[in-house]
Amino acid sequence: MGWGSLGTRAPEPRVLQELNVTVVTFLCRPHNLRTLVPRRAAGICSGDSGGPLVCDGVLQGVDSFVIRECATGQFPDFFARVSMYVDWIHTVLLSAGDEAGPQPPSAPQPAQHPSH
Q1: What is d(CA 16, CA 50) in angstroms, rounded to the nearest whole number?
Q2: N or C: which end of the chain has fewer CB within 10 A?
């Protein structure tokens, strides 16, 4: 799913794109998932970076990179395997309230009445 170009030399879409892909297991690496679109020149492209790979309603990967040109059907697309980064994601979310992250809103102060 994404807003990326429809091909290396193609324009960006006007509507959000969704594509059914096949997860391939050959040459698997622990930190990556790889996908192909059988019998079609389609896949992730520039503008899709960080987009989701969802399987059965569960986020499995985040769009990472392609080899050579995008959406050719010749090479797999690569996604970072989210399950390998769960501890890091939790650490970032827990530190969101630190100085570098967003702060919760301050409690409202009682209204002060001017003295006459």
Answers
A1: 14
A2: C
User: Which DSSP letter does residue 74 get?
Assistant: S
Tokens standing for residue 45: 């492209």
Catalytic residue among 49, 83, 106, 115: 49
CATH of the domain at 48: 2.40.10.10
Query: Is residue 71 in a domain?
Result: yes
Cα separations in angstroms, 74 against 56, 58, 69, 116: 26, 27, 9, 81
State pLDDT tens for residues 9-24.
Answer: 787 888 888 888 888 8
Predicted TM-score of the model (pTM): 0.71
- The single-letter code of the amino acid at 38 is P
Per the structure, the complete domain to which residue 79 belongs is given by 1-83
Q: Is 115 considered catalytic here?
A: no
Output the six-digit token pair for 10: 């193609």
Burial class (CB in 10 A: 0-12, 13-18, 19+), 64: buried
